[in-house]
Amino acid sequence: MIFDRDGNTTIVYQEKKDLTIFLKNLEKEYPKLKNDNLIINLFSFEQLTSNDVMEFLQISNQHRANDKSFVLVTERVSYDEVPEQIAIAPTLQEAKDIIEMEEIERDLDL
Predict the structure, then answer these.
(1) Strand order in the sheet with 37-41
(2) Binning pLDDT at 50, 70 and 90, where does residue 33 land?
(3) What is the CATH number for 75?
(4) The pLDDT value given to residue 73
(5) How many domains, the chain?
(6) Which residue segment(s) compose the domain that 103 sits in?
């Protein structure tokens, strides 16, 4: 697992292509990341389905409840295939844009 921190946002990359191991490692490292906005880069997973993305729902809800953004990045699953509780973007730039918009909304108490 690789962490790339930029201000109050951390991008999490995975080298190995096993989703179960990735989720376990993310949960283990979460206490170090809980105060940052998180972008989870899933590009290394070639076989990714909407059911796989649903595995992130609990941690996404937990993170968002603490007024932090949680965005998954993949081209393999569209935002139409998952509930709106999961933020998903096809590129890292779009994930950063989502976080920027959510931070503005939080600042304005929307």
Answers:
(1) 2-6, 9-13, 37-41, 70-73, 87-89
(2) very high
(3) 3.30.750.24
(4) 96
(5) 1
(6) 2-107
pLDDT for residue 79: 85
Q: CA 33 to CA 30: how far, in whole Å?
A: 5
Task: Label each residue of 24-92 as H, E or C.
Answer: HHHHHHHHHHCCCEEEEECCCCCCCCHHHHHCCHHHHHHHHHCCCCEEEECCCCCHHHCCCCCEEECCH
| Contact between residue 77 and residue 53 where contact means Cβ atoms under 8 Å apart | yes
Is the distance from CB of 40 to CB of 73 less than 8 angstroms? yes
Helix axes 19-33, 57-65, angle to 10 degrees: 10
Q: What is the pLDDT of residues 34-71, one digit of tens each?
A: 999 999 999 988 889 999 999 999 999 999 999 999 99
> Which whole number is the average pLDDT over 100-107?
94
pTM: 0.92
Q: What is the amino acid identity at position 54?
A: M
DSSP state of 8: T
Query: What is residue 16's DSSP assignment?
Result: S
